Structure formats: C-alpha cells, structure tokens
C-alpha cells in the first residue's frame, strides 16, 4: 500500500501572508503538495474565484456540511464560517500526497487533536505594525472588520507554541526557503536534497569540539557530584554531555533562525558560532534536565 501523505497546517494571523507563501510552495513539484480549498460563508473579494480561492456557500449550505460530517474542521472567524472539506483531503492523502491546510488557529487546534500524521507551522509577522499595514493594505474591508482581524491576531499569536515550527514571514522568499527545508527535514518531499539541519549539526559538532570541551567536562563532573541516589548516579554515569550539548544547540539555532533570521545563513560558520555563544549562557551546567524551550526571551 502507498504511504499516506501528511496534513500540513499553515496557520497564523490574517494578513501574515499565508496565501503568498503557499502559492510559492505549490509551484515546487518536488514537495508533492496539494492545496485544500476551504468552504466559507464570506462574500468573495474582488478577483476571488469560486472553487479556486474558496467554495463560497450560504450559511445554510455550511450548516448542512457540518451536519453531514463533510468538514474535517471548521471555525468562525470575525463573523464568517470557514471549514475544510473532508473528501478532497482524504483522497489526496490516500494517494500519498501532502495536503496544505491554510487555516486559522481554532481549526488548526481541531486538526491537531483529531488527525494523525500532521505537520504544523505557524507563520509570524515580523512586527505587529507590519501586520497592521498588511491587513489595512488589502483595503477590502471596513474599519471595524480590520479591527476585528487585528484583535483576533493578538489572540492567535500567543498560541504559536502549540505548533511544530514557528516561521517568520519577513519576506516570502525567506519564509518559503525555511518551510521547504522543514518539509525536507520531515521527509515530506520527493527530492533527494538534504535538510540544511544535517549540515548545521556538523558545524555545531566542530564548534563544540573546538571551543566547549572545558564546559562539557564541567557539566559531566557537576552532574556526577550532585547525584545522591543510586538512580541519579547511574544516570550521571551514562550522561553524554557532548552529545546533549550538540543536540540542544543545533535544534535551538535551527528553531531561532526559523523564528527570526535569514535562512541563507543557517550553514554559515560565523553565524552559527555567534548564535551558540549566546545560547551557551542558557545551558544549566548543573543538571541533566534542561529547559525544553529557551525562547522565553
Ligand atoms: P480570509 O477571510 O482572510 O480569507 O480568511 C480569514 C481566516 O480564515 C484566515 O486566517 C484564513 O487562513 C482562515 N481560513 C481559511 N480557510 C479556512 C478553513 O477552512 N478553516 C479554518 N479554520 N480557517 C480558515
């Protein structure tokens, strides 16, 4: 049997540029991506085409789709309903294709709860001011609708940590190269390219071996010294501080660059070295257990 495809959620506040980023991703055939066209009760904007941008339906039709279990998820967004039709998504997944769902956070939460094999990405604007100008720039909506979209964004952004990856959309090109790499890393593509993450780990290994052996030895010694029962002693003896440090630093440099950085630098030794210098302050050299997320600053 063919392997099933993955559901790829691209979420993020209205105006962040999900559409432009997805449009670009869909041109890369190696990514085997299919776009799920949503159903909405919103009126079409100028230039939007039924069946391409959305299936534009009445409130009644939408309610029927819910009752007949035809939607994978649905949500209300500033006064209109939006939902993902089940049939198309299941068909494509069964053909081994990956399906992009471009949806807001309530719908994303439902998909994360109910579906298997999901990869979730949250697109962030570079700043709130930039988001405001992008929403206003569309000039298709009344002032109170614009305000409602911005208010909604302020509620959505704090939920970004529920996603597998957070990607800043400072430019479409940068965001697309980040998401493409994520898809390669998550083995969602037909291409033989290697994820930039692999090369990053090698760079981190070299830097750690050149500059941080002293700290690794300290870390292992401290952990042993502080181990006071049999179980902790065994754990301390088995502790591979070098391996752990490389793992933490690689994933943090990768994550931080996705969330805020120029992805073309991810395999640049000087850039990685600088990022590591800052991350080293955050390692707790007295404990095996580390904060799972250093992003609080
Ligand atoms: P817009 O009116 O700007 O096209 O969409 C408003 C919001 O609804 C956007 O954040 C968009 O991504 C989201 N959206 C579009 N289709 C769906 C869908 O099928 N389900 C959910 N939950 N949100 C959707």
Note the overall shape: elongated
Overall pLDDT, averaged?
95
| CATH topology call of the largest domain | Rossmann fold
Instruction: Give a list of the ligands.
Output: guanosine-5'-monophosphate
* Total domain units: 2
Largest sheet composition: 5 strands, parallel
Tell me the CATH architecture of the largest domain.
3-Layer(aba) Sandwich
Strand order of the largest sheet: 2-7-1-8-9
Radius of gyration: 22 Å
CATH superfamily of the largest domain, by name, is: P-loop containing nucleotide triphosphate hydrolases
Our estimate of the beta-strand percent is 5-15%
Helix content: 40-55%
Write up what this structure looks like.
InterPro entries: GK/Ca_channel_bsu (IPR008145), Guanylate_kin-like_dom (IPR008144), Guanylate_kinase (IPR017665), Guanylate_kinase_CS (IPR020590), P-loop_NTPase (IPR027417). Residues 5-184 form the Guanylate kinase-like domain. With 297 residues, the chain is α/β, with parallel strands linked by helices. The chain is 49% helix and 14% strand. The strands form two sheets. A five-stranded parallel beta sheet has the order 2-7-1-8-9, sandwiched between helices. It has a four-stranded mixed beta sheet with strand order 4-3-6-5. Strand 5 and strand 6 (80-85) form a beta hairpin. The chain is elongated and about 70 Å long. Residues 14, 18, 38, 42, 73, 75, 77, 82-84, 102-104, 106-107 line the site of guanosine-5'-monophosphate.
